[in-house]
Prior knowledge:
The protein is an alpha/beta fold. It contains ten helices and five strands; from the N terminus they run βαβααααβαβααβαα. It has one domain (8-206): Rossmann fold. The relative contact order is 0.21.
Amino acid sequence: xxxxxxxxxxxxxxxxxxxxxxxxxxxxxxxxxxxxxxxxxxxxxxxxxxxxxxxxxxxxxxxxxxxxxxxxxxxxxxxxxxxxxxxxxxxxxxxxxxxxxxxxxxxxxxxxxxxxxxxxxxxxxxxxxxxxxxxxxxxxxxxxxxxxxxxxxxxxxxxxxxxxxxxxxxxxxxxxxxxxxxxxxxxxxxxxxxxxxxxxxxxxxxx
Length: 207
């Protein structure tokens, strides 16, 4: 008997639109693997670096000087073995892509960000989702999540949107917010994050 192809849901999202929450709730409802932090963890092991070192670069393209400083900045008194190399953005993307493909091949999963929709575009049982929301909704959620001011939340949104757009375009050649490349695009600020989970589950029942 032929083994069924795992169902993989990729979620691309604007910061503050509820991507992590929606992804976790979907994974729980469908009883499938939730892949977010696990991708960083596996990549860190492959590069023999700390997870924190990769997390600070997640879905970002560093400028030349940022890359230079990060590569050579060593805290006083800390010994860095000479064989440990800081991965380039391309190396990190390719490694995370391999991890994402392996997860999608082995089990049903909800995969958050990291160009998952593009990486798994040939996967025969993939559903790609894009979550977005208006600035007021996103600011409010971020303020509550991180206990920060409205101004700081607004700056965080602007920075994240710019970095994710640049990251996606660099590695896919596509505009990150173009709804045409996703199966389903949801404005969570209109219906809320919990209702967005329900919409996705109903969509899955229809296909």
